[in-house]
Amino acid sequence: MQRASRLKRELCLLATEPPPGISCWQSQNQLDELRAQILGGADTPYEKGIFDLEIIVPERYPFEPPKIRFLTPIYHPNIDSAGRICLDVLKLPPKGAWRPSLNLSTLLSSIQLLMVEPNPDDPLMADISAEYKYNRELFLQNAREWTEKYAGQ
């Protein structure tokens, strides 16, 4: 019951006051299955891209973080080919930083920030991380190509 009322509140807030470049909605009237879209930020290789995400809300939410993954392929050191995201707020302590006070809006904003500022020191994709660290131009070119190919309107 607590999960349902909290999710309804969060979705209502996301609908009325969404963070810039982020939208989120229920997938086919399933309260535990959501979809989100994040617009690629200006002055990033993801600019003009629209990235779709899947959000699975666990039974124990908010005491357990939602599982979020990219459905749109993205060239990024912290996001793997299955769309899984390496981000501390998506994991429970002690390895992660999830807290019940966090919400969907905060998580989606954190993912959007990760797109702007990758963390090459905690990569899921070692090869892309090395490229980001040591050959930034090639990384930017590849990320722009992927964005055009997979996330273009």
From TrEMBL:
The domain of life is Eukaryota
Tell me which InterPro entries the record gives.
UBC, UBQ-conjugating_AS, UBQ-conjugating_enzyme/RWD
Annotated ranges, domain UBC core: 2-152
Keyword annotations of the record: ATP-binding, Nucleotide-binding, Transferase, Ubl conjugation pathway
Write out the GO MF terms. Answer: ATP binding; ubiquitin conjugating enzyme activity
**UniProt key word Mitochondrion:** no
Question: Mind telling me which CDD domains this protein's record contains?
Answer: UBCc_UBE2T
Residue numbers annotated as active site: 86
Against PROSITE patterns, the record matches this protein to:
UBC_1 (PS00183), UBC_2 (PS50127)
**What family is this protein classified in?**
Belongs to the ubiquitin-conjugating enzyme family.
The protein's name: Ubiquitin-conjugating enzyme E2 T
